[in-house]
Amino acid sequence: MATYVLVHGAWHTGELLADVAAPIRAAGHDVHTPTIAGNAPGDDRRAGLEAAISSIADYLNENGLTDVILVGHSYGGMVITGVADRAGDRVRRLVYWNAFVPNNGECLNDMVPAHYVELFDAISGQSPDNAVMLPPPIWREAFMNDADAALADSAFAKLNPHPYATFTDKIALSKNPAEMDVAKSYINFTEDTALPQSLGWHPRLSEKLGLFRLVQAPGGHEVCFTNPGLLAEKIMEAGRD
Amino acid sequence: MATYVLVHGAWHTGELLADVAAPIRAAGHDVHTPTIAGNAPGDDRRAGLEAAISSIADYLNENGLTDVILVGHSYGGMVITGVADRAGDRVRRLVYWNAFVPNNGECLNDMVPAHYVELFDAISGQSPDNAVMLPPPIWREAFMNDADAALADSAFAKLNPHPYATFTDKIALSKNPAEMDVAKSYINFTEDTALPQSLGWHPRLSEKLGLFRLVQAPGGHEVCFTNPGLLAEKIMEAGRD
Amino acid sequence: MATYVLVHGAWHTGELLADVAAPIRAAGHDVHTPTIAGNAPGDDRRAGLEAAISSIADYLNENGLTDVILVGHSYGGMVITGVADRAGDRVRRLVYWNAFVPNNGECLNDMVPAHYVELFDAISGQSPDNAVMLPPPIWREAFMNDADAALADSAFAKLNPHPYATFTDKIALSKNPAEMDVAKSYINFTEDTALPQSLGWHPRLSEKLGLFRLVQAPGGHEVCFTNPGLLAEKIMEAGRD
């Protein structure tokens, strides 16, 4: 039995990973799906990356979790990288699932094409609390390309405004991921176009990990909604020793 | 029920898409498979791109088709782009299936590696009516790589000489595809080597669409012959709202 | 009935391809799995590339094999290229399976990232007979990413120290593969990270073949261990006329 901690992406909460956690739990593992500070219903959307990372590091400490397989989705890659840097003794393996891989001093927006940064800047600029949302057509076409319209709509309704500072705050790391002394895996869903594939997740970001285990499967950025069972399987293939 | 118009590629006719149309029709949709001017048995092989585009635009008008999901294969991508530019009010979504995506002023040959242009120039130069054919070894290895020899041969026997001017005529568009106000999808079969994959369909040509929905599946350039059922499925995933 | 000769990769022997040969044999074909000079138990690890190539060319001659579908895995790509150059009249088709494709004057290390060359230099430098082994973490994460730990370990135990001169000897060819007058296929397993995918097998090395047939399937570098049945299928799709 292993301990999995699944860290969601931007606009999501831990709750939205329930269908992914269930089959991993059914396979005999302990599974946690905390919500990152800034994404829970009542949270202040002015939260930054430091608070986000601390909230998950604190979660591991408070629950006394060790030998953790720490899985991060998309923006969650920023968070698990920061957690590994400050609570590395609790982490057995990092698993990036179509996730950002930052080196010291990088922010999420540094890994995103310019037209997305402009769009996010404009949207958050209109927001009273520096929050950002995804325009529905981008969600439907580029994130939920493997869903039908009904699922794209129902999943969109579950998203929450995201604290934009977590995209613009530069991460502070004592070591870059490639130098971290922890096992690493990268799960790449091959139809994920949340980043344009010419500037995509894998191998562009995955190879920042140094030696890592690649796991791939068909699906878009939001397989937590479109194929949670397959995602659970791939997380276990990525997470096993 | 939606209306699908499937526009074939070079050397093909609409008739060769019958096995693709059937399962889409069986799912309740209206499906049309017109043959582009220049490709029907008696057509003059000196036809150019303008005539090709007009023939499909005329087809939509004459049949009073609206809200069309307009699907183009390979060279058919040139044609549907032109049709969307001049009859955009009839088109609900453009679906490119391993297809060329031209910007204003580009011709098909601008998107093809130099050694193919040289080969096509040489073959059409030998032809009395500026027609071009594919050499059988290229068809067998690079287009029908997922077929056995018998299917590669029987499908080759159904091809017709292609009007080469449609490869060299530059398209005239009032707007590039990325700026067109119509939904767009790109279907990429992942073993398609009709274009070398280092200079391939996706993401090189797909990303000229701006925001688009990616659909991928295993197969070569000619899944209309090697896996028409899977292709029909993917067309419906690409075409749905 | 066709004749298949399967040429293993570095650290392997022909014996390790038994589970791949069996289903090809069951489909009615004649299958040979010779061990390259330098890799058999008692062989001198100071063997070079010339001896390696000669050993397989001699095998074809001594067994009177003609119309051979000659399959090479990884390092085996160096060997089959050399065999085709000097015994091309015995070869019907070359099949590269995640294999190196050398032009005249290239060595295997010319196609490998610098950090692997440094690692191999260091390991072979420690060896009394210029042999090189793979460090277990690289084997487990980058070669056996699609295996569980038990299979990764049991397969590792079957490997043998590899004659490093075969990685540093430049191949002498009268013709580069693209110019060779023999049919060619490339099988690419899409999760193979033995080479980093940004500097990977396909299309970087496959396209050195000129016109070739692409066959792809899911799996890592060592599908001979993780999925021999699927590999056998793909070898037959790559090898048929």
UniProtKB/TrEMBL annotation, chains A, B, C:
Domain AB hydrolase-1: 5-232
Coiled coil (UniProt feature): none
Keywords: Hydrolase
Highest taxon above the source species: Bacteria
Annotated GO MF terms: hydrolase activity
Protein name per UniProt: Alpha/beta fold hydrolase
